[in-house]
Amino acid sequence: MNATVDRCNRFRFGFRGWRRTRPFWAGLFGLVAALVILRPVSTIDLGTLSLTLQTIGGMSAVLIAVVLVCCAIGMWVRPEFRLACGVVTIVVALISLPNANLGGFGVGMLCGLVSGALAIAWRPGRNSATG
Amino acid sequence: MNARDGRRQRAERVSGWVRAGHANRAASGGTRWLRFGLTLGASAAVSGVLVVGMAQGAIAASFAASGTAFKVNAESLDGKGLIMYGSEVKSSAGAKQAATMGIKSGKIDSFCTGLTVTELPLLGKVTIGLESPEIEGENLVLDVGKVDAGTLSLSEARMGLDASNVGGVKGSSGLDAAKVRAEDLTGDTWSLSAGTMTAHEMTLSADVGDEDSCE
Fold it and tell me: Is ipTM strictly over 0.85?
């Protein structure tokens, strides 16, 4: 019983510490943006109307989502590259507006902008190795 | 590096996270909110410029719609290189008879269309309206159910061609014309796709109800 509580606490504080040592929310917003932008590649059905992306729009949505995912994971595993990842995320999110179905109808682009701004604004704690 | 060293390194890294989780909040990483606000503000301004550019037609955005008929109104249509043949449109509501129209390059004045979206949860019927004083397109392909035109003029028209000559299925009948001009157009369209399509000063609106915003 005690051992289980210990393991839970170790996981809880370990996860908290992991979040505190990297731009966690920036990466999470980046993943959400990628998902939202990628979603319209399949057809959306609204009643009898279905909106489908054409091939070129669909391909750029895939490309943009892949770059966003790479940047989000990069922010998590290499917090020292947060500035580069953040700038790329912002630029790609802006490009998604005309190229990927209005940037996932605006939501994906906004998540991407928030992700990039959070990553650029993040600063490591004191006594941290990640400059 | 052997396997035992790797395990120990991983364990040390996890212990570091656990220590950071227990540590004082002030010692951990955080967000500089002023910098966040400035960055977000700057990028939002750039996206505003992009939206204005798209609305003015400087940056093209394209999509295709299908599955239900939508009403199209236009004051006039000028096109070069028209082909037309009977066809069948496959949609989520089954196959429909349609006429496929292809226009090599065309200009539409006072274009307006309303797409009625039926049975959206909570809201009921929703109509999406799209209006533009001027649309230019290349390689336009329309599947139309019905078109009424005030006047229609074709030049160098050939009617009663076999549809296979103009891109359709062999056996049905088709027509082609070098130039087409139609005025006061209204019609039901199944789908519209375009190689390139530029809409100037476009307005997009969504309204509850199934009234046609074009009339």
Answer: no
